[in-house]
Every structure is written in structure tokens, then in C-alpha cells.
Predict the structure.
Amino acid sequence: MDNQWWKKSVVYQIYPQSFKDSNGDGIGDLPGIIEKLDYLAELGIDVLWVCPIFRSPMVDNGYDVADYRSVDPMFGTDQELDGLIAAAGQKGIKIVLDLVLNHCSDEHEWFRRALKDPNSEEAGYFYFRHTEDGQPPNNWRSNFGGSAWAQTEDGRWYLHTFAKEQPDLNWENPKLRQALYDMINWWLDKGVGGFRIDAITFIKKDLSFASGDAKDGALYPIENFQSYPGISEFLTELKRETFAKYDAVTIAEAPGVSPELFAEYAGPDGHFSMIFDFNWDHMKGVSVKCDPDSVSAWRSRMFESVLHTQEHGWSAIFLENHDQARCPDKFLDKDKHGRDSMACLATTYMLLRGTPFIYQGQELGMTNSIRSGIGEFQDVSALNQWKEGLAQGRSEDEMLQELNDYGRDNARSPFQWNAEQHGGFTTGTPWMPVHSNYREVNAEKAQADASSIRTYYKGLIAFRKSEEWSDVLAFGSFEPALTEYPSLIAYRRSFEGRTLLVLNNYGGSLELPLAEGEVVFGSVETPEIKDGKLNLLPYQSVVLTETE
Ligand code: NOJ
């Protein structure tokens, strides 16, 4: 039997700026997380992924790390992080930190020294280039818009796959790699449960630095430089020198890993414990609303991916994270937002094979906020995209719509704790306004309401982790079921002679011919199989036992 602990875990993601402010400065912090550990334990999760809390100028909200070993004062102190790890541990919750290895901040001392002295050791930790014509070395584009090169005061160019304040680290340099490994082991020795590893597929560059053919003149890293040949050596060494020596979980953000490469990344002997499954995620430009007409497209992508994963490794499964719109908005039309439809989405993904992740506020049914002008956006990527879009001749209305629909700020509005001012997130002025619906949608209300979506999430987590069913749900095989019904997402999970049939109805009322089975979990009421038939209401989720 597979005894990797994280296969039975449910992970909760915290975006620290927006979770809970304890000192009234309007920004969430570590004591705020400690204060809310009971809330999290009561929900039933057992791993907390905390987005970066390291010292940072916060250009990309902590994904620009200025010191990998100390906590940013905005979030608290190093001792408070130790306190969080210990207090969470007492409740059986492991802390997973966010490891940013592709780049650091331009305020990191390595980059400062590199700027000061082109001949310093640290200058070799980055990609600096000279050009004769005053133009960037090539036409590579940054993921956040504009050229991937920025110029220093002394005329050198340096590479940045993300914002210009996030210079890329030169993984070709063994000293840099060793410095990163030392830092990782230092955290592991402190007792962290593991890491979520940021943008890892970008660490290997095309060292020819040649410009490429590109439709709009700029070469997109997403299409060209994810998992670039040669990356395997880096990732093999990374694991050998760090994670392999500990019982730590490693969850890689590794977009662009093809099905052929999946096993290398997330197979039993892969570079990581798991990678996020972005294959059936609702990304920009791919519209998969879960309405009766289109849910089968989502289902196909989901099933194809899970079938592949179960042959070759393990995935992190999710509906939301800090880079994406809220899941009710991503998957459901506005008039379909409701407790049952959200419960249907939750059941659909949380009982799949893989480790489920819940993003803060997802369990409350938090939704996107509509912003009426670019001045209301804070995300560096949104601001860059806006500038770039306008420069390319797109209209302000179109850009605004796109950012409202897909922008990363959607997930970053403060957590809604109660009906008090600013949703109880802070006693001060929140760094980002709280969603205007906080009086209706908040944790206090949801916890007290037996029919809330949060209560449903709690039950679903308990079901997933129950003694009776956790083996089936963690280790059981996955098999698509009843695909002849276009608006039904149904699958079987089977393990050692026991099977669960999971039914999620995204269409109108449905009468399913089912011979036998007992309902063990459900979202609305407990239906029964009568005369060989089961009736499902719109957005009803039901889990039945089947004995093989
Ligand atoms: C992916 C992270 O999820 C995102 O928030 C960040 O901006 C980029 N990587 C760059 O670190």
C-alpha cells in the first residue's frame, strides 16, 4: 500500500496578504493565520500552503523574494513563523512554504552586488548581456508583458521572465544552485512539511538566446521555454540535494509539462510529489461554462487528464488559486451561482484521484469583484497587460472586461470573516477592498448555517478523509461513467473490491437507470434508487456505493 501521507491530504491555500490582519495595518499576517488555525482545523484540512511570506518589496506580492530566509516584517517575525509551524503541527496541520526558484527580487543582495560590480561572483547568478545597438538581446517577451529584458544603469541587459523587478536566476551556475539547495535544506530542517514550487518549468533557458519567429514580434516564454531541454539535469540534482533526504511534499507549479513528460515530473520516482493539473483548468481564452450544453467539453479534458495521471503519477487538483478568477465565475454563469451549483463543482473535483487543494474563501463561495477602472487593480501583471493591450490598439472596455473576468486580483480580495466592517478582515483600511457581498457571504454566517456551501465543503472533506472511504478515494482507480449523458460528470473510484460512483448533474432533472447501490454522500437530499432508477435534480451531486 502506498503510504505517502500527502495522498490522503486536503490542502488549503492561504494568500497571506488577504487572509487575516491581526494588527490593524490592513494587511494579513502570520499572527492572523495562527488566530484562525481553529477555523482551518474545524474545516478538516491537514496541509496549509502559505504563499510567499519572505522579505520582499512586494512588486509581485512576495513572488519577488529579497531574502529567502527571513519573514517580511509586513507579515510578522521569523519567530512568528516558527510559532505558526509549531501551532499548526499541534493541530496535525503541516505548513507548506512557497519556493520561488526561477527568479528573485531586484532587491535581493545577490542582484544588488551584481549591479554594483559586473565582475562579482553574484553577477554570475543572473543572465546579463551586452548589446551594441542599445536594443534588448532578443525578442523574448516577459510573461507579464513587454520585453523579457531590462537595462541596468550601466547599460547591461538582464533577463526577467516575469516582472522586471524579478531577475531570472542563472541555474547554469553551480554556486547559485548550491546556495538555493542550502536555503531549501535550512527550511526543511526547521520542520516545514514541504514546498509549493513556483514556475519551475522556466529554470532552463535556451542558451543561444536567439530571437524566434513570433506572430506579434515577441517570443512568448509560455509557448517556447517551459521545460526546455536540459531541465531534467537541474531537477534531478535539486531533488537529490534537498527533498529526497526528507519526508517532505513537493508540489510543483509546472505548466507546460506534456503528457509524455508527466511521469518524469510527477511519477513515483519523479522530480516532485505532484504537479498541478492545469489541463482541465479554465484558463484565459478557454471558455468552459458548466451549463448543460458545454459541460461535456470540460468533462472530456478532465477525464483525459485524470486517466493519464493515474497511469503515470500523481496530481494536485484544484478549482481556484491566487492567480485566477473565483470558481463560480469561471465555471458558472452569474444566474447559476448558488450553493447547489458550487457544491456540484466541489464534489466534481474533490473526489477525483489526486490531492485536492482549496483556495481561501472558495469554501465560502467567494466570487469575483467587478472593478470599474484600471485604477482599482493592483496586480503587476494586470497593470502591465493593460499598458500592453492599449499599446496594441485594444480598447479600454475590452481590456477592463478581460481583467474583470480573468484577472488575478479577483482571488486576492480579503477573506470575509464576518458581517462587521471590512468583513472582519482588518480593523484598519484593507490593502484591497473587501468584496461588497461580505454581509451575506462570510465565514461566521456560513459556519452557523447547516446548509451553507462551507458546511458542505466540511462534510466533503470529512467524507474524503473518512476511515471508511479514504483508501478508495485516495488510492482507488478512476474510471469515467455514464458518459452518454452529456451534462453529467460521473466516475467510479474502486479499490480492493469496493467502488464509489460519483454523480454530478449539471443539466436539468435526470432519471438514471441504476440497478443497485446505496447513497453514502450527497449534496441536496438523499435520493434513493427506486424501481431501478435514480432521480437527480439540477446541480445535484450524489455518491453511491457499488460492490464489485
Ligand atoms: C506563479 C505564481 O503563482 C504567480 O503568482 C507569480 O506571479 C509567478 N509565478 C511569478 O513568480
Notes: The chain has a mean pLDDT of 94. The two ends are 20 Å apart (CA to CA).
